Amino acid sequence: MKLVLDCDPGLDDAVAILVAAHYADLIGITTVAGNVGINRTTRNALVVAQVAGVDVPIHRGAARPLAGAAVDGSRIHGQTGLGNSVLPDLTWSEASDDAVAYICDTARSVDDLHLLAIGPLTNVALALQRDPDLRRHLAGLTIMGGGAHIGNITPVAEFNIWADPEAAAVVFEKAAPVTMVGLDVTNRVVFGDGDIARMRATATPATELAANVVEYLLDRFREYLGHSTVPVHDATAVIAATHPQLFEKSRHPIAVELSGAHTRGMTVADLRPAALGRALDQPRPPTSDVVWGTDVEAVRELIVEAVVAY
Ligand code: RIB
Ligand code: CA
């Protein structure tokens, strides 16, 4: 699978880069502001690729959402966006500062390209505004984001959607079908100390970095929630794109709430029978897929195996 990864590294994005490079033909990375600002997400993508030897072009993207103020996830991801990892001097440099042009040009020039977005959807929305036919030139569009009536950054909104709801609304409206790998499934693939130890056992710079970022994420979940395991959301989304046969999904109308005082950023998946929508004169086409479940053990194993390959 030929893949472009749009990301906001970000602790779990860092692991996702390794997993994507291991299982897909990763032809490029684009960065977006999200977990931390665009300078840091771009630097973090470069340093992860440099440390792991993932030699792909990295294009800087949007610094702020389509509307509203830029958000920040440093409470979870740390000020650098990669926890407390000791990062080497950066010798690699970004291929361009125009992720949107890269996405549009690559979608038109590369056959069977799959776009996987694991951060706020700002770049994807801007690409759709630049090229309304973008979706026709993609073999697939998968996002880590949202959830059917489940949230993390608010009771009903997931961070990537909440960080730029206007962009998410554009993507679900203009780029269907979208495969939504949301919290319904990513919350279920969790990692603990044993998985971190397995990653660390090979003691390479890349596995050390991966183990450190997962351990930092786990420490936040211990600190805030008392949990002994932690989801690595973005890595699970990569496996959903590269190993779709492991996942259950169903197609529904999905809308993004933009104005609700308590629900802004919610992905509203209409799970009612389509016939009821028609009977109530609410005919909204089921255009995107909600990913519900997976073989959790198999996905966790695939992620650890990918990491220890670096
Ligand atoms: O809600 C999980 C998502 O928010 C992941 O993409 C993680 O990187 C954070 O940005
Ligand atoms: Ca992310």
Description:
This protein has 310 residues and is α/β, with parallel strands linked by helices. Helices cover 42% and strands 16% of the residues. It has helices at 11-23, 38-52, 74-77, 99-109, 122-130, 159-163, 165-174, 183-186, 193-201, 205-225, 233-242, 274-279, 296-307; strands at 2-7, 25-31, 58-59, 113-117, 140-144, 179-181, 190-191, 230-231, 247-252, 254-256, 267-269, 288-294. It has an 8-stranded mixed sheet with strand order 3-2-1-4-5-6-12-9, with helices on both faces. It has a two-stranded antiparallel sheet with strand order 7-8. A two-stranded antiparallel ribbon has the order 10-11. Helix 9 (193-201) packs antiparallel against helix 10. The longest helix is centred in the C-terminal third of the chain and has 21 residues, at 205-225. It starts with a strand and ends with a helix. Calcium ion (CA) binds next to helix 1. Calcium ion binds next to helix 1.
